[in-house]
Task: inverse folding
């Protein structure tokens, strides 16, 4: 059949080659009027739907949804599940209560970062691990020596939607999620949904935007119904889907790290020491030497003692030219290179030129200068700008920590 | 305590900015405000329970980013949220939808005029050239062209260099531009009347000029030169209303130890031996200060708060003749739902942003004729925006409010003084016009705040309700603002300064006047400067 015979392609010669559609795709496709799609673990993911900056402002001003179906989700269950995870990750999860979530990282024996993610404690011997990249092989390898632990890849069996922004709690309340305002940060609640009494809707107070926000987890059959219910409730609260571009802005302001920006997964790193350790990423608080042995413990203990060669810092940079992909120096003449910017942007909320940067630890106390290249009507320009280290996230709001959340 | 380093009169956004920078430099600063709330014309008021109006100014694009950043206004609660979509309504039922996205905007223009869709690129480029030059002057003190002080000569040279960098042809065009009317200026670019009228409407906002009056081209530029995060020409809403800007500035002021006193209207600025020494409040209290800064407009400052005898010869006359004519009204309407407009796609990105009821160039000119005759326009130009569609904090869920800026409305009517009846009739004119484009609009009305120049003057204190604290015509711009020889924020009486929009760079919620004045004051006091230099996207 040639195209001239019919405009309808009955057999897709590229079947299986196209990015998969997520469980929310039917609704998102309608709203993605710019047709600007990226991909995440084989799933279509919007870069933006209409206007990235507008979507970013929905997260800071109203509320927005971000499709996290592409996130990898693993059920880790069995009598040894906790011990196995606690051996794998650097944080101590043995004191976690059921219905709590914790952010963590895991490393190789050399203390190099494999990935970051969250662990949901769903039951006494039942956990869900979420992360950005497929990790089945590493999880199975980590089970070596543990008898009663099973790993099930649930990535395709759970539909998940991040729901973030100041009005998010109010909208969930309108959606009928009673007592949602009592949910504490990193807590989990289960709700009846779609006439089902067995509480198929799981909500965690988690997110990646640095503001009030939740993540909604449900079986794929109910995904669209949940979307519709959420959007009906959110109609008067500036609900809007946001894409990767807006997420990246929000997470940078919150000071959160992103794979392929702040860190290169060690299992995918060719060049020596182009990967990272938790200390370099300023994730010291995620490493617990008091707990029993864990992967990378010896190497990390040594690094803690010796000090990390690089440290990830938050920079406030003078001027307004984002310091994208630039090096930083200890002198205005840019002669002594001391590190590099990992991500940078103009922050519309804070009105500051912000960046995350890897800087050689021994230079942190001195001056830091960024050599910024930018382009003005085809002509490249260079600017050297003074950088100031910020200890706190660029954006934070008390409502993100308060329970119940403060009024929007 | 009744002795301060500096007293600032008027807690409008420029007064608060000025005070914040003085306080930041270590001065003991008091801001006195006649109302029982701060903000002046950058104010949020809940006049009907659940609805928060930006009673006066309603959108923001000139706020100096450098000041926002420097005073950490975000920490003090300020978030500026851009809104999307504009619709202009023509007399014959035609509509023009405006988008922030360049391609979408091009397509929308093409539907009406393929010629103008292309020509718009040249128009925007030319306006951007002029705008970037003016933008650079906003956070600088205008040079005195008659002075031989090195600082003035350097600043004049700097200014000349900026102009010269336009190139010979553009330099001629620019000089012409300052004296042109908005309609004549656009004639060289556009052919479609609705597109012309839509662009020209920015040239009459807040000003007692018509689209065909010389000088209105500059006003157009003044309204398109702002930006939100580098998006030139974009407009933003302050979350929580425009009062959030004043509140955040007050937060910064208080952080640096400054003080604000409400219900403290000023009766008089005290002058001894040709030096300002303090103020007398309306309640008779006397407060003393080394520095007195007026954030009131030039006319009010000199003709109402000072004795003619305390001023050097000629100043009182200059102030009396300062061009500050009331030409606009503001109607804030609380609505039980989102209004629907005829001929506008039912699409959230275009149906709830800005609305411009422009009619045509002819209609706008006729509207100006009414003003000249001492009447409010029968068929006014209205610029509207629905802040509640973007800001969840300013109306109950599902309810809305619409800000309507109305051109023209005189401060003095030909048939006698303003009365509540006349004010209501003016409001009705506005509602009737909107109803024409949005059938059923009237049924949505829950509450209305109608403000003629009379109310604006009475409540805010702006003479004649002029939103710019004085017309933005070339005779009152740059080193002519407010008067030639007094453009550097220092007033004819020693130790007295002005920091309001009557000074350079003029009207708009920019904080620039207040910051510039603070820099001059600190220079005179030999204190180190706390005011940042501006930063630009297109430096």
Result:
């Amino acid at each position: 059949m040639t195209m001239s015979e019919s405009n309808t392609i009955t057999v897709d010669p590229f079947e299986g080659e196209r990015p998969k559609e997520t469980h929310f795709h039917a609704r998102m496709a309608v709203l993605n009027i710019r047709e600007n799609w990226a991909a995440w673990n084989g799933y279509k993911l919007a870069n933006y739907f209409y206007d990235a900056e507008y979507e970013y402002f929905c997260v800071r001003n109203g509320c927005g949804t971000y499709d996290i179906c592409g996130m990898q989700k693993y059920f880790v269950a069995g009598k040894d599940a906790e011990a196995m995870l606690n051996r794998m990750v650097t944080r101590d999860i043995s004191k976690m209560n059921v219905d709590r979530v914790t952010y963590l990282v895991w490393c190789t024996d050399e203390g190099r970062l494999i990935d970051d993610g969250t662990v949901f404690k769903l039951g006494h011997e039942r956990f869900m691990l979420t992360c950005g990249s497929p990790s089945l092989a590493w999880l199975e390898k980590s089970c070596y020596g543990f008898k009663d632990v099973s790993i099930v890849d649930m990535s395709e069996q759970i539909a998940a939607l991040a729901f973030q922004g100041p009005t998010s709690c109010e909208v969930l309340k309108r959606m009928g999620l009673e007592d949602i305002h009592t949910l504490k940060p990193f807590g989990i609640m289960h709700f009846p949904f779609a006439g089902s009494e067995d509480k198929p809707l799981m909500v965690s107070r988690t997110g990646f935007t640095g503001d009030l926000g939740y993540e909604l987890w449900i079986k794929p059959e109910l995904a669209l119904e949940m979307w519709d219910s959420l959007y009906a409730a959110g109609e008067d609260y500036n609900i809007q889907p946001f894409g990767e571009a807006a997420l990246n802005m929000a997470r940078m302001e919150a000071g959160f790290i992103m794979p392929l920006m702040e860190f290169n997964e060690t299992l995918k790193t060719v060049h020596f020491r182009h990967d990272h350790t938790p200390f370099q990423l300023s994730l010291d608080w995620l490493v617990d030497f008091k707990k029993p042995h864990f992967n990378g413990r010896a190497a990390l203990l040594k690094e803690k003692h010796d000090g990390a060669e690089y440290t990830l810092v938050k920079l406030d940079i003078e001027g307004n030219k984002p310091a994208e992909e630039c090096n930083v120096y200890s002198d205005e003449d840019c002669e002594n290179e001391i590190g590099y910017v990992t991500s940078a942007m103009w922050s519309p909320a804070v009105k500051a030129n912000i960046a995350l940067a890897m800087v050689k630890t021994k230079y942190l106390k001195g001056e830091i200068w960024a050599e910024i290249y930018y382009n003005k009507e085809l002509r490249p320009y260079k600017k050297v700008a003074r950088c100031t280290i910020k200890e706190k996230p660029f954006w934070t709001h008390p409502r993100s920590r308060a329970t119940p959340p403060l009024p929007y | 305590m009744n002795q301060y380093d500096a007293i600032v009169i008027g807690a409008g956004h420029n007064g608060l900015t000025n005070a914040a920078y003085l306080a930041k430099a270590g001065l003991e600063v008091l801001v006195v405000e006649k109302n029982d709330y701060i903000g002046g014309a950058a104010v949020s008021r809940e006049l009907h329970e659940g609805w928060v109006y930006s009673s006066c100014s309603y959108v923001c694009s000139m706020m100096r980013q450098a000041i926002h950043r420097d005073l950490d206004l975000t920490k003090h609660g300020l978030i500026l949220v851009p809104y999307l979509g504009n619709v202009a309504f023509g007399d014959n039922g035609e509509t023009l939808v405006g988008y922030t996205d360049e391609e979408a905007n091009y397509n929308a223009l093409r539907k009406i005029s393929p010629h103008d869709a292309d020509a718009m690129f040249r128009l925007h480029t030319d306006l951007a050239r002029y705008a970037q030059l003016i933008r650079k002057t906003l956070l600088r003190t205008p040079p005195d062209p008659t002075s031989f002080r090195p600082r003035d000569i350097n600043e004049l040279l700097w200014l000349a260099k900026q102009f010269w960098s336009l190139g010979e042809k553009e330099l001629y065009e620019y000089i012409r531009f300052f004296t042109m009317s908005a309609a004549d200026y656009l004639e060289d670019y556009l052919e479609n009347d609705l597109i012309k009228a839509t662009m020209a409407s920015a040239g009459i906002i807040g000003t007692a000029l018509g689209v065909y009056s010389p000088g209105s081209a500059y006003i157009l530029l003044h309204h398109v030169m702002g930006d939100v995060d580098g998006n030139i020409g974009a407009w933003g809403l302050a979350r929580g209303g425009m009062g959030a800007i004043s509140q955040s500035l007050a937060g910064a002021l208080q952080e640096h130890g400054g003080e604000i006193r409400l219900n403290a209207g000023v009766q008089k600025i005290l002058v001894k031996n040709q030096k300002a020494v303090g103020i007398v409040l309306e309640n008779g209290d006397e407060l003393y200060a080394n520095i007195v800064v007026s954030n009131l407009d030039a006319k009010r400052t000199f003709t109402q708060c000072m004795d003619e005898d305390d001023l050097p010869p000629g100043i009182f006359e200059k102030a009396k003749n300062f061009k500050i004519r009331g030409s606009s009204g503001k109607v804030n309407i609380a609505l039980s739902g989102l209004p629907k407009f005829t001929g506008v796609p039912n699409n959230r990105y275009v149906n709830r942003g800005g609305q411009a009821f422009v009619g045509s160039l002819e209609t706008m000119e006729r509207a100006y004729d009414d003003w000249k005759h001492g009447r409010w326009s029968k068929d006014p130009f209205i610029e509207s925006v629905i802040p509640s569609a973007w800001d969840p904090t300013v109306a109950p869920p599902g309810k809305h409010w619409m800000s309507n800026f109305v051109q023209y409305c005189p401060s003095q009517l030909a048939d006698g003084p303003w009365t509540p009846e006349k004010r209501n009739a003016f409001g009705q004119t506005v509602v009737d016009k909107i109803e024409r484009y949005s059938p059923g609009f009237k049924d949505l009305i829950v509450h209305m705040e109608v403000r003629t120049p009379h109310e604006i003057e009475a409540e805010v204190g702006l003479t004649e309700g002029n939103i710019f604290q004085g017309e933005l015509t070339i005779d009152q711009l740059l080193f002519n603002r407010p008067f030639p020889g007094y453009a550097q924020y220092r007033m004819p009486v020693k130790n007295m300064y002005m920091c309001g929009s009557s000074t350079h760079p003029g009207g708009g919620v920019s904080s620039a006047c207040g910051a510039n004045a603070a820099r001059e004051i600190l220079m005179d006091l030999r204190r180190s400067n706390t005011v940042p230099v501006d930063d630009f996207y297109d430096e």
About this structure: The mean pLDDT of chain A is 96. The helical segments of chain A are 25-31, 52-61, 81-88, 136-142, 168-174, 223-234, 244-254, 297-306.
